[in-house]
Amino acid sequence: MRYDELTEKSNFEWQHGTFPLPQDGAGFTSDDDDDDDTIDDNRDSDSGSQEQGHAGGEKRTQRRNVIKNDSGTPVIDKYGKDITKVASEGGLDPVVGRENEIERIAQILSRRKKNNPVLIGEPGVGKSAIIEGLALRIIQRKVARVLFDKRIVALDMASVVAGTKYRGQFEERIKAIIDEVANNKNIILFIDEIHTIVGAGNASGSMDAANLLKPALARGEVQCIGATTLDEYRKNIEKDGALERRFQKVIVDATNTEETLEILHNIKHVYEQHHGVAYTDEALQACVRLTDRYITDRSFPDKAIDALDEAGSRVHISKVVVPKEIDELEKRIAEAQENKLKAVQAQNFESAANYRDHQEKLKLELQDAKDKWERELDNQRETVNENDVAEVVAMMTGVPVQRIAQSEGIRLLGMTDELKNQIIGQDEAIDKIARAIRRNRVGLKDPNRPIGSFMFLGSTGVGKTLLAKRLSEFLFNSPDALIRIDMSEYMEKFNVSRLVGAPPGYVGYEEGGQLTEKVRRRPYSVVLFDEIEKANPDVFNMLLQVLDEGCLTDSLGRKVNFKNTIIIMTSNIGTRELKDFGAGVGFNTAITKERSEAVIRKALNRQFSPEFLNRIDDIITFSSLNHECILKIIDIELKSFYQRVHELGYTLEITDAAKNYVADKGFDVQFGARPLKRAIQSYIEDPLSELLLRNEDKSSGHLLIDLKDGEIDAQFIESQKVENVSE
Questions:
Q1: Cross-strand bridge partners of residue 191
Q2: What is the DSSP string of 3-25?
């Protein structure tokens, strides 16, 4: 070889990372060497002569020869996975249905030009599974003769891009793949998430994968199947008209419930083998039924298969118990290992050898015990039933869909009494709410509407908002489950869009809506629209779809499910008109109850449209509070106060006379129970705080609040030991 040729060749090898570096006898720096060798086979003889002095070079030459002997497509083998080969080895799950889609793909692949199908569908509808089904049909010879002996190779774009350190290296790899596919007409490339080829490897002055593939796709030299989602296809491929025309669209819709159930029946044996369980037919039906109803933001069959898989995993983990024999053997092996190390440290090598032999013997016994246990598990598989699937779906969604346990049934039956103990004087509202929740938990409610939608009417301070709070705490044992939307924030027309998210081009577009995002994160909740009449009328139009269909589309186009929410709207509309006729609802006034309801109904019709009112399940009028209700509310309000005093180290007693005095001062028909809180602060908390400050040196004792000479009197009784009345 001449000197100038050798110099040019050496510069080429240094540039592409293929120069044989003498490190540990292995002459090459990266796996890119195989790629470069396949691109330019003319260099093999020369580079082989330079590598004769290096052991690593000889190994590399041997490895290259092995690759060339095994396959005529080394680049494809390196950057792709042969799906037809996996199918012939039985490594694919069976594919059920999708005959129309597979037939359309076969038709497109059999075309002379532009024979490149692209599968478009929502995530989880089974686009990749369709390609696996096509590979199985090719193996079984159930396709057109032109597709016999075809190889479907899934190209891994991440591997193609990874490690491209030098300019032009990515293009070199893509060109090598194109040339290899063009020379081997039996190869069909499959690129999952095909939108990734747009911009892949793109840098200043270089070409991306899409532009490199376009000429070969147009000439028919390369056959390619793509798969992507509707959104990604629109964003990336439709923008490039030249790329779009080279692909033929195949729309893949989600399967229906019958097809999904058939798929589960055909693949359940794979999951039974993996988890060591057995699925009942009822469990498979529950996977389809429950995911269809409660997981609305994903598609069949993906969500049903996920429920099937996780139910098997849950049963396997919760019910499989490791035998004591295996635990004992593992402990003995650990002890033998520890004794062996101690013997080695003590230079007692003979004893260490004995411990080593004993340890090896125990390991064999352990392996035998594990094999025996696995055989027993295969013979005695745990059963996955409908309840197990319901528990898993409840965990996935946060919605309690499992059958009601006896304890929960008793609790739901007692819900009315428990809420009535906390909300005084509003028995009718509590009864109607409780009936709606029982209907839902038993499974009798309409699955396409919210659990219940109610409008609470009444004057301020009668317990409308408090009932919504106590209801969420009862259902979820957490006050965080209440989604409260203060409608006074949406009085202006331009604020209405904040509920579903800002429109494109406005601040906060990507953040989602204040209502829709909260419901997406917590689909089983109580949604409270407080003071609904203060909102802009456009809000009512937005809520029509929620009340009727149980869903709402946010600014990003996602459908948010309201079917597992309780919607409560509060309003004091009409109460001002009632004051013109008497003291209010629930008192012996000149106005009758029927007349009061007519006044409120007239005010409602004036404020809200008929189609909005017609979609609400129930309009509940809260009664005004009387003196007896105020006395009961005092005891409820003072419970937390007793607890705070007790934590300071004191006991507290409030006489009935003092309570009646506070009730008289805090009672106002127009303002409900809110003045009562102010009265408790003024007549109980303030005198008590002054008393404690005057007796700051006394860290414990008994506090008495009584009525003396028509005034509240707070006393400190140090010697008397009285139990906390709250207890």
A1: 226
A2: HHHHHHHHHHHHHTT-S---BTT
